Amino acid sequence: MSKILITGACGQLGSELTTELRKIHGTDNVIASDIREANDQIGDGPFEHLDVMDKARIEEVIEKYNITVIYHLAALLSANAEKNIELAWKLNMDGLLNVLNIAREKNLERIFWPSSIAVFGPDAPKNDTPQNTATNPTTVYGITKVAGEQWCAYFYNKFGVDVRSLRYPGLIGYKSLPGGGTTDYAVDIYHKALAGETFSCFLEEDAALPMMYMSDAVKATIDLMQVPEENVKVRTSYNVAAISFNPAEIADSIIKQLPGFEIEYAPDYRQEIASSWPDSIDDSAARSDWGWKHEFDLDKMTVDILENLPIIIEKAES
Ligand code: AKB
Question: Is this prediction's pTM over 0.85?
């Protein structure tokens, strides 16, 4: 029986992954942890306050619960990382190295670590960006992701640590808010649309980016962690793709459901980050190695969010 630790469990992906993993493995077998206080989204179940830069504290939690698998999600995202480059490097790198070293020392069963489309910079092809191509990121977040991917491959090849990774596109969910990313606009837009407000977008109208609905992201993560070791042929990180759209296209998708919705554009420093990233991603390696397949396209996602987000908002307000 696996005993799972999730770092960064109060984040946008962490809270949904915690819920799903608890459904599969049982609440007591999934330990949520974060440097923040536990929030309602992760529900009831074991929780530990944890700073991933503190290796001794991670070891303490691992011993307390006999952890065998870690989903190491704690990190600073792209926009926040540009505002604090030292912290971004320290948190994103020391946190990962702590987890990888512990996995090696304690012979843990498996590790998951999220990479991102941010590994790619302007030298990579913009459309259908291949699995292996020039990366050369121009953001500090991207630099930490490229370095992190290389550490993952190194720990697998040298020490046999079974670490698996996905290059997530922008993740869009309705259950919790993202924090400090460049793709966050695609979550905020639904909140403003439901509130009947005009949405002021911090990206230009034609800034296309690869995106994915949260339920697909959770499925991709769990699928990758469940396949036999020999199916995981990419030991840096897998490209995974679902949908690709720009702000004007997501606005049009919302207008189909809420005809009065309006968007205006006020690009800021995040536009430069978005411009350095791909428009769309080639994920054929993930599809052939372990059968990755997404379910949600843009309109299906919009309908699902506009149906479910009001329930979440009402719950939070009551
Ligand atoms: C961000 O915008 O920083 C993240 C990402 C694409 O990794 N959502």
Answer: yes
pLDDT digits (tens, 9 = 90+) for 79-91: 999 999 999 999 9
Which atom of ligand 1 is nearest to 145's Cα? 7
Residues 118 and 181 in one domain: no
- Check residue 179 and give its pLDDT: 85
- Rounded to the nearest angstrom, the distance between the alpha carbon of 183 and the centre of ligand 1 is 6
Q: What pLDDT score was predicted for residue 39?
A: 84
What is the SS3 assignment for 258?
coil
Q: What single-letter DSSP state applies at residue 92?
A: I
3-state secondary structure of 127: coil
Shared domain check, 78 and 104: yes
Q: Is 309 in the pocket of ligand 1 (CB under 6 A)?
A: no
**Is 145 within 8 Å of 119 (Cβ atoms)?**
yes
Q: What is the pLDDT of residues 108-153, one digit of tens each?
A: 999 999 999 999 999 999 999 999 999 999 999 999 999 999 999 9
Residue 221 sits in the same domain as residue 269? no
Q: What is the pLDDT of residue 42?
A: 84
SS3 content of the chain, % helix, strand, coil (to 5): 50, 15, 35
Residue 286 lies in a domain: no
What whole-number distance in Å separates Cα of residue 286 and Cα of residue 262?
A: 37
Asked if residue 99 lies in contact with residue 113, where contact means CB atoms within 8 angstroms, the answer is yes
Instruction: Judge contact between 244 and 210, C-beta under 8 A.
Output: yes
For the chain, the first-to-last Cα distance in angstroms comes to 38
Residue 41: pLDDT over 90: no
- In which domain, by residue range, is 186 found? 172-210+242-280+295-317
Q: Identify the bridge partners of residue 113 per DSSP, sorted by sequence position.
A: 165
Question: What Rg do the C-alpha atoms of the chain give, in angstroms?
Answer: 19
Clarify whether residues 252 and 206 are in a common domain. yes
β-partners of residue 112 are: 71, 164
Atom nearest to 81 CA in ligand 1 = 3
Active site residues: 141
Question: Is 285 within a domain?
Answer: no
What is residue 266's predicted lDDT score, i.e. its pLDDT?
98
What mean pLDDT is predicted for residues 224-233?
Answer: 97
